[in-house]
Predict the 3D structure of the following.
Amino acid sequence: MKKVIVIFIVCLIGISCEDFLDEVPRSEKTTVGTSLLDAQESVNGIYAFLRAPYNRTGFAKMGFSILEVSNGTLMPAVGTQDTDMEDAYVLNYSANNGNAATFWNTYYGGIEAANIAINSIPGIEDPDLTTAIENRLLGEAHFLRAYYYFQLVQIFGEIPLNLIPSSSLDDGQLPKSSIAEVYETVIVPDLLIAESSGLPNTDSSGRVTNGAVKSLLAKVYLTMAGNPLNQTDKFAMARDKASEVINAGWYSLFQSDAELTWFDKLSSPSFDNIGENIFMVQYDNQAVTSTITSYFTPIGGEAISPLSLHFGGMEPEQAFIDSYDPLDLRGQNQGFFFNELDGFTFNNSVYKYFYDDYRTGNGLSGKNIPLLRYADVLLTFAEAQNEVGSANGAAYDALNAIRARAGLGDISSLSQAEFRQEVWRQRVWEFPAEAGLTWFDIRRTGVVFDNNGGFNDFVGHTLPNGSTFSEGNRFFPIPQSEVILNPNLAD
Amino acid sequence: MRFNGDFQINDWLKIGGSLAYSDTETNIVDDYRLGADGLTYAMLFYLPIYPTRYPDGSVVNADDLVNANGTWDVWYGATPKDRLQLLDRITKTRQIVQNIFTEIDFTKSLKLRTSYSVQNNLIMGNTFVARRLDTFINQNSATIGNTDGEQIIFENTLSYNPTISDDHTLSAVVGATRQESESFTSSLQAQDFDDFFGFYNVGQGTADPVVASGFGRYTIDSYFGRIDYGYQNKYLLTITGRYDGSSRFGENNKYSFFPSVAAAWRISNESFMEDSNTFTNLKLRASYGETGNDAIGNYARIASPGVQTVVFNNQRAIGSSQGSIGNDNLKWETTEEVNLGLDIGLFNRVNITADYYRRTTKDLLFNVPIARFTGYSSILSNAGSIRNSGIELLVNSLNVQTNDFSWRSSVNFTMNENEILSLGTEDADIFTAPIWWNQQIFRVGEVAGSFWGYNRLGTWGTDEVDEAARYGRRPGDIKLEDKNNDGLLNFDDQQIIGNGLPDFTMNIGNTFSYKNWDLSIDILINQGNDILDHSIILNVDRVGYGNTYKKFFDQMWTPENQNTQYPRVRKNILKFDGADSGQVFDGSFIRGQNLNLAYNFNKSLMEKLGIQSAKIYMNLQNFFLITDYHGYDPEVSSFGGQFTEGIELNGYPRPMNMNLGFMLTL
């Protein structure tokens, strides 16, 4: 009997138990960091996290709305039912704001994706991954990580610095870092690495370019020169970077021609990634569709879109529309806004993302979202030059290029203070409903446009809806759910 | 369909096998959701005064309800009727189970059984969403999905049943099992085609198809043994041990040993009880045992990158990013159970089984949340221990027995308490959010997955305008407790507001036989379970104008009726605050589980027709429900997964089933 049992056990155990329980996934990779393709894919992945704040989710909710409706230019449309946007509109900056959490979650997601790429690519031993390719890929990763941190530090202020790939629960317990630390340990160094990584100057594919790196660096320096760091030595650095971009001639402002106005070019997917568009969130109209055009479809404008539902998204405050010079094309119908098209009238709505082909399609759009635009670089240069010493010819050229395109005459001979305010005005009028730029300008400059030509101090300024800025409105609070998990993030 | 065959080849060898085949088709109506929006939502919310067709016969579209200026008072989406008719979601499952075995008798008491079984599941899940149903974009879609699953079990057992003496009985079994499960899935989604084709011709789609496939495999390796010993059929002892290995765990934790021991004393077989007419059976039992759980993803321990779709040059490109953090330290979740039981048989009429149990689950496999700035939202870990303890009481009785009539009853009573003993390394609270907010808490000392939210005080009155304004509220809005009175409603003001566990459940079954008739009735009583009903945020606290429950409408705030829990009727609330105690309801119920009525044809008559027996029967399931709960079904859980019992968001109720049948035995 013993013999039988032995045979019985051997025939079972003999089939090497060790291998039997060794199962590994086949439809998903378990390692990154072995080939050129891995390196490319790990960098591609970082781009995916640019999208979430500009995607319409649920009913008609869009993350970046909280920045656009709390600066006096736009207000929530009745069709959105986005209570997080409505909270931001009345300057109730809650730690439970879902749109703020969208920024937090997706941008930190992009940061972790960048951490993984930056950590793994140098260890890849694939002869096809040449030093030149490796440097360019790392350059893209560093740029994107810097972009995400730049957005987060402007929205939330002091934030944790996640710089290496996370691996355990302990990694969720990082403390907050100071604002200066975020700029000085990540944003600036990352952009400097990207700047020297051999990226192409321009590229219409939608990837990060050297032009985008220098443009963002100029903006970062301008922001560091303002509140709350007030490192005024950065004005010169901002001017020099912006000047490099301008003098290189890589970009040009869109101009109206016989076929299309410059507004139509800005809003048309056909002009994405070229001309004035330096860096954009990429979409196609199939697998990864853009929802910004449908988000802004005018209420009452059923006749001008294939959608039966119109959300309105965010609509301009009348006081803001009225603040434009009557000659300013940007404030007129089918400038940045519209309330009439082909004889149909509707609520005054955002035109910046509306284009003609959209009307005949099935509602799916490939419209990219501009994050960095040449107009921004020109105005960054003009402002920085004016702060360094005085507005020179080049500074007036930059400012007047923006004015001229908007249908306004050239200006000259302004005092430093007058020039500064003129640049700020042009920024407010140029960038409504665009990547939160006006909200960031308010934090940087410490003043808010009064929709009547002038500027007021941030704290105490009252928006057209009657809400007044307080200290608590400088930043959004870190999401409550994060603070529960990591009490170090509490105020 | 089922075939069995056993062949006794000679006096020591037997071989056999079986083959079973089944084919089922289901059509699911409730699964198409836009946000919180499903069929049940539409049924509850859609104003019944709105038509589904106009007098001329044309169909009412959701967007017809949009106001002239483009706004709408409520977003209904498609009408309930459209949701039923414009969505096909059909799942076909074909299952084949094949089994072969051999039994070799080495001696009279030593037997080896080897069995090999293969189970194949082919699942085809097809969905068609007609163009008109998707009111966000003007597009239809068809998805065909296939899953090919296979499970192979190879088992060898050696059993030993010696005859020792009249006093001692002994049997022992050792065995080993190997199990392999794998599945291959593929799916294809087409968009933008003529509705005519449904999901029958996805080649008609004009947009880029969305394709996907996946593969998963999982293996288990087990060794086990059992010894049963009895002395004079009075003292009984069973000892078992299992050594289980699972491919789902890390290298050092694949195997774990799970012992158990059970002892029983059959008092009724003692000499001093032999003459008792009262106790026909009396048995005292005690046991301790451990069992393991490996119910996690096949590859959950392995860190794997996430897959991202990105666009460059207007072309799709593949990207990778963080996916899941691996955890190579994952090990078996183990439940230790202590059980004390008593079996009592009285007068050959009544059997009572009473049990006290205490189950302690250690190394709970749980997704522990991690701050999102790490790039992840949770890490699967062995994260704590939970105790379930309680009593079970089962009484079977033969109440009446005459020649023509008999009445049997069965009552099953259970009471369970649940408590978290430890969590993670520092016993810190863990919050989870099946939907929208952190509405569940895991806290040491509390019931796992207790509901978490604000305490609703009632509604703001007209004399509290200023006080309400502090919270951005107006008279008639819901008044929540600001516990620290800091003017903010936030996490600090939240508390445990209920849990989904019942105080007790009781199952009462009665079977009556009268001549050729059989009648059985099963009733389930569930007492004291809470339901967190998020549906009333839309239906009662409301966004837009829609239908509501009369029960709440009658109690709603009006200037004349200010002392109420339910807000005034208004189009839009200012914002959602998350869960609050006003959304928690008593879910106690009494349900008619099953009613079975059968008529057996006379045996003698049937035998003449060459039929062994024949009966005709009617079966009703879920035939009545008594509850104070306003929703369709107090037993519903809208969210899958562990610990989400009792959280409802427009849940789809369980149906009432009626079967009529005729059974012939030839």
